[in-house]
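FAQ: What does a ligand-bound record look like?

Like this one, built around adenosine-5'-diphosphate:
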Amino acid sequence: MARIDLEHIRHAYGEKPKSEADYALKEVHHQWNDGGAYALLGPSGCGKTTLLNIISGLLQPSEGRILFDGKDVTNLPTQARNIAQVFQFPVVYDTMTVYDNLAFPLRNRGVPEAEIDRRVREIIEMTDLGGWARRKARGLTADQKQKISLGRGLVRNDVNAILFDEPLTVIDPHMKWQLRSQLKKLHRQFGFTMVYVTHDQTEALTFADKVVVMYDGQIVQIGTPAELFERPSHTFVGYFIGSPGMNVLPAAIDGDRVRIGEETIGLDHAPKIAAGARTELGIRPEFVRLGREGMPVSIRKVEDIGRQKIVRADFAGKPIAIVVPEDGEIPAEPRVAFDPAAINIYADSWRVGSKEAGR
Ligand code: ADP
Ligand code: MG
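The answer part, i.e. the structure of the complex:
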């Protein structure tokens, strides 16, 4: 297992990038701690696969260095990096049996047969492939083949890291849940460094100790699920994590008060912000109180989602979402109040006071 340092990584696929927009990775400078379980979360196209391929050596970055435990591996080929990588779609040898597919990475490294047998049986049990062990991979379903790929990634326990690139996309929902908890268990047992890519926030939040959020070729926030929820460092994170996402409203700061349209809201501190800077106020729909006190809103729509209701309203001329409990009353003359402790202030998309702000 290893600590992985990514130093000022940039990557453009084209030969001659003309502008920042041509870079799939703009500037990734980050450390994956030895034994950490990380989820890498971000929308499609933000650079997650590119980053994994750079770690495993399938791709050479245009700029920057990769270190494993302090040793520069930037120019080492994939085989020399000792990384297990599981892709979104199955990679199996069709003419081999399920058992031999799983044994392959171990035989390749000269592990004794008795040890191979023990480990392969463990993986077979974990992936529920028992009935198929002696069958050729050809003819199995995509779901079963993906379990083989997953098993091949997990069968070795001497790797520097395991990288998973949305590995459960083709797996059915029930099995997904089961495999995820198995992965977590294996991680606890062997303590490998694990980077798990997903665009599914629920998957990321239930799975990892630390969630790394990417947006447009950059890492925009690293935190625990609670940190990401409560203090999104970037308006994108607030919008992407949670459902519905954070409300983001154009705002003007005046000391320890903030103005939105005609309304003024008190803050629990005066944000340090340059006069005239473009500012936005972020507040989660869960922290907007709907009642008879506060500032007027006009309700456009109420969506009943079971245990809660989502109220869509106009506030100071902007659309806003409010979450109310199932039995929450909606007054005839509705008003809203914002919990000051739950307000985040952003200058140019970055939260004021977050370490990335003002970059
Ligand atoms: P993600 O895995 O987050 O969906 P990718 O790393 O696959 O994102 O892609 C990041 C960006 O790089 C996207 O704009 C994508 O179109 C581009 N890209 C990915 N692979 C290639 C490639 N082989 N050639 C050119 N552009 C690519
Ligand atoms: Mg991808």
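Follow-up question: can I read anything off the structure? Yes, for example: The first helix runs from residue 48 to 56.
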